[in-house]
Write a structure and sequence with these properties.
It is a single chain. The protein has 390 residues and is mostly helical. It has a 3-stranded antiparallel β-sheet with strand order 1-2-3. Helix 9 packs parallel to helix 11.
């Protein structure tokens, strides 16, 4: 009983204590880009006030500070400096600051190659990141070279059947296909698929992804029936194993829809793409790059089916979304702008089409240079619009 009485006594004492006063703000401000402070004071009975100073840094500011300190104290090629640069590149890439991120990754790759060698895991991780970044920026040739180097290093260190080697082999197959070498891409995709089936099993997500890659190589060779059938099989298997909203399943359905559109089967392609857009919206939300990609494809199908108004409205949403995520000069933004220009031109608004085409040419010149084939195609499109207006 006495123990119970003591517990009641402690509760009663606590209830009699005065609640601490709410903190009073003494000020906030900026100490530098991404660094802010706040000062608060809390009054305490019978004691001096408690003053608290809090500093807040954004992820980018913290990463820049860490890199600057490591560079100053340890040197430009110290492993901690290179790690800090890699982490800053990750932050910048996630924020859409792609050019600076790539510049930092080049610095990290060069530094790690000189310090720990080409085959070190840290070097390979940075090289893979740089290759993926360049691929997303449309620099396919350099991305292929780097990916081939990483693949060879993994093969040398751990044999061709190692999962990391197979991952880079599959990525290499996709890059070769994007560089318009579909026969070589098919060979690489079949090699990656066979390795993944043997090492990971036929139902593994990476194995299904390799079947998707193989279908892409067949499609690029002008074999649409084989490609459509394989895409459908991948979508069915992925949906059964992982669910209809799984990324492999959704991507296979989108690829199957692209084949249907290429064959002029607009109604089937539209149904498929609408389902893909709905899945992307549910999984990722509006404005996500995968959602925007699905909307881009749906807009293209609507345009092909002769529904110009719907297509143009949706493509404008895509251009605005990509511009917000990546910036005005990113290949995805410029590609969608080029498609929008074609839609506007077909509608008969040549002045707006010309303005869009000029933006496309300027963006490609800034990104890839005046001699790049993409820039040349953009100029040819501009000439078509201008000469048609004459």
């Amino acid at each position: 009983m006495s123990g119970g009485w003591r517990r009641r006594g402690r509760r009663g004492k606590a209830e009699q204590q005065t609640e601490p006063a709410e903190p009073e703000s003494l000020g906030t401000g900026e100490l530098g880009e991404g660094v802010s402070y706040s000062i608060t004071r809390r009054e305490r009975a019978g004691d001096v006030p408690l003053v608290n100073i809090a500093l807040t840094m954004t992820p980018e500011a913290k990463a820049r500070w860490t890199l600057s300190a490591a560079y100053r104290d340890l040197g430009e090629t110290h492993h901690e400096t290179l790690t800090a640069a890699y982490e800053l590149a990750e932050v910048l890439w996630s924020q859409g600051s792609t050019d600076e991120a790539v510049e930092l990754l080049r610095y990290v790759v060069a530094g790690r190659r000189s310090v720990v060698g080409h085959g070190h895991p840290d070097t390979l991780a940075a090289t893979s990141f740089l290759a993926r970044a360049l691929e997303q920026l449309g620099e396919f040739a350099e991305a292929e070279q780097l990916t081939r180097t990483v693949w060879a290093e993994y093969v040398r260190a751990s044999a061709a059947a190692h999962p990391d080697a197979l991952t880079n082999l599959a990525r290499l197959a996709r890059l070769v296909c994007r560089l318009n070498r579909p026969v070589e891409a098919e060979e690489l995709a079949r090699q990656a698929l066979a390795g993944r089936e043997r090492v990971l099993g036929p139902g593994h997500r990476d194995t299904l992804a390799s079947r998707n890659d193989l279908a892409g190589a067949l499609r690029a060779q002008g074999r649409p029936e084989e490609a459509e059938r394989l895409y459908g099989e991948v979508a069915e298997d992925a949906g059964r194993l992982y669910g209809e909203d799984d990324s492999i399943c959704v991507q296979a359905r989108a690829n199957q829809a692209a084949v249907l559109a290429h064959q002029g089967r607009w109604a089937e392609a539209e149904r498929q793409y609408r389902a893909v857009v709905a899945l992307r919206l549910r999984s990722n939300g509006a404005g996500h790059v995968e959602t925007l990609g699905a909307q881009f494809n749906l807009a293209s199908v609507l345009h092909g089916a002769g529904r110009a108004g719907e297509a143009e409205a949706l493509m404008r949403t895509v251009v605005e979304g990509y511009s917000e995520v990546f910036g005005a000069d990113h290949p995805e933004t410029v590609s969608s702008m080029s498609n929008l220009a074609a839609m506007v031109h077909r509608r008969g608004d040549r002045a707006q089409a010309e303005a869009l085409c000029r933006q496309v040419v300027a963006a490609y010149e800034r990104r890839f240079g005046p001699g790049d084939p993409r820039t040349a195609r953009a100029r040819a499109n501009l000439r078509l619009v201008v000469e048609g207006d004459a």
